[in-house]
What does this fold into?
Amino acid sequence: MNIRRAKEKDLYKVNAIEQSSFTVEEAGDIDKFKYRLANFPMWFIVAEIEGEVAGAVIGRPMSQRLITDGYYENEDAPEGDALAIINLATDGMYRRKGVGEAMMKYILKAAKESGFASSSLCCKEHLIDYYGKFGYQLIGPSKSEHGGAKWYDMEIVF
Ligand SMILES: CC(C)(COP(=O)(O)OP(=O)(O)OC[C@H]1O[C@@H](n2cnc3c(N)ncnc32)[C@H](O)[C@@H]1OP(=O)(O)O)[C@@H](O)C(=O)NCCC(=O)NCCS
It folds into this structure.
């Protein structure tokens, strides 16, 4: 498995994984992925297996500690020392093989090395323990109404 920064040519596969992993309301679209690659290329990471994109994780610097819904949109936001994780998805064919874990460890190590103070994300209830394995702590129910789902705020302070 090769973990690397995304390129323009990866975006259609990243988008296909996203569409098959989330509801229509929750999923990003190709314009969002283009925006994220153009604006936060350092934090748009893919896992490649035998030349195929198997998953992606996307971060975005923010100036507040917890994510609010604007961070999922193509909106300009101030730089900051917290890294929001705004996407994580693995292709159904490659799940439960450690792809998600490898991508999360990669982005967290890079964030720490780049001087970020913390990282946060919003997740569904069944993934609280999964993110706990990487050191994220549950803050509580999120104000996020992204895609009409119920989300929980999690944060890791480096
Ligand atoms: C959540 C998600 C990204 C995890 O990706 P993944 O690549 O399957 O993640 P991992 O392989 O690192 O870990 C998944 C599970 O497989 C287990 N696992 C890892 N390697 C394994 C292996 N070789 N054999 C068996 N199980 C393994 C892990 O322990 C983990 O178990 P847990 O969920 O009980 O803790 C993936 O399920 C997904 O894309 N879901 C849909 C989108 C989504 O919900 N994204 C998160 C939004 S907050």
Observations:
- The two ends are 26 Å apart (CA to CA).
- The chain has a mean pLDDT of 95.
- Residues 21, 55, 88-90, 95-101, 123, 127, 130 surround coenzyme A (CB under 6 Å).
- Strands lie at 2-5, 44-49, 52-62, 82-90, 118-123, 137-141, 152-157.
